[in-house]
Amino acid sequence: MKHASFAILFYMIISIILPCSIVMADPVLAEKIDLKILYAGLPQSDREADFVSFLRKYFEDVKTTDALSINRMKAEGFDVVIIDYDGKVFSPRLNLSDDFSRATVTIGIPGALLCSNLRLKTGYL
Amino acid sequence: MGEAVQGEPRKHAVFEKPFKVTPEYETWDTPDNYFRYPYSSHLPEKLKVWRVQNTGEKVNGVVAIPGGFEDSPDAEILAPGYNLGKENGSVGVGRHGNFLQWGFSAPPSQMTEAGKRFFLNCICYIQQFDRHGPLVKFTMFDRSATIRYALLLETIKNKETYNLMFTQEQIEKYSNKSKVLARHYRDNLELVYWDKTFIIDEDLRKLGIESNRTVTSLERIIKLFDNPGKAYTARLLLTRYTVESFESPAEWKSWFEKNRSRLYFSDVGGYKFRVVPEGYPLASK
Fold this sequence. Notes:
- The complex is a heterodimer of chains A (125) and B (285).
- In chain A, 34% of the residues lie in helices and 20% in strands.
- Chain A has three helices and four strands.
- The radius of gyration of chain A is 21 Å and the shape is globular.
- The termini of chain A are far apart.
- Chain B is of the alpha+beta class.
- A three-stranded antiparallel β-sheet of chain B has the order 1-3-2, with no helix packed on it. In chain B, strands 4-5-6 form a three-stranded antiparallel β-sheet, covered by helices on one side. A two-stranded antiparallel sheet of chain B has the order 7-8.
- In chain B, helix 2 packs antiparallel against helix 4.
- Strand 4 of chain A pairs parallel with strand 6 of chain B.
């Protein structure tokens, strides 16, 4: 009787925990997405490692560069550029030339300040 | 910005492809700062939100101003951000041209399931705008800013705040009558434009034209050339509201007829009509 009660309790707990752990796992794809991604961030940082390990689960090709020196030439050969730094700081300010037209995701406060420099509607005004 | 998107996702590819974004909704208090802006009295006490990240910090991101954000076809609001600094509807995630600003600050390890899917979809979505830069650049706030700033005249006493908004005469006259000035701009909003300060277009009003930003109004301005006595006014208004500089009325009419369906007016881009270039990619529906 005691063992049966324990087993019932065990299965009840498993039935609650297991679905939750599935919901919290990263999304799953059958094949990686055929896009070449350039992540421009803070080199050798934990944040860079966090983004890159995540992105490499989903995209065929992910490379990195320093956000402080990203430019049009470094973006050649990539489909999307992600410009990050640490999400929060107001300095140093990231820069791009006014005519930078590559598909770009900018992140957090440094991203918004970069957009302000470029006079974009997405800027931190 | 806080850690959540406000409201239900709009119908858009960034919530569908390649991953279906399924938010887990919560109910949060409506931020006090929302009620400091005009037209906010209708807001409920609680808002429906869904977390994009979970860092434990109340503020961990940045929003952009929503006024005029979508007044040009190169920009779209993808998700309003729950925020503790700006107004309701401020842009947490938005696109302008080839740039998609993800306003949240956390790395993927601190994103929620829905946040990760949304982020991945944004990366995939922006790729189609590669090498298609923005059509306009920020020149000035949209016309709704006149009401907002007019109401601030009695609370923010640093007059330099209003230098690019109102004339010195207006600042002095209305510094204790802010609601009167705000009402004046609200009642004439369709005729507001910006040229060193915000101005209500009396030239258009005298012609009986009620708005400066509709294609119909532009057509009426060009038709002024049919009356030789109005040619000067036509040129004045076309210089004010377009980026073109044709010599003859025939050229103006030809330009208008050729581009009628692709004309748009942007406050933020300088209170001008422009033509969407052929082949320019528009927002996903």
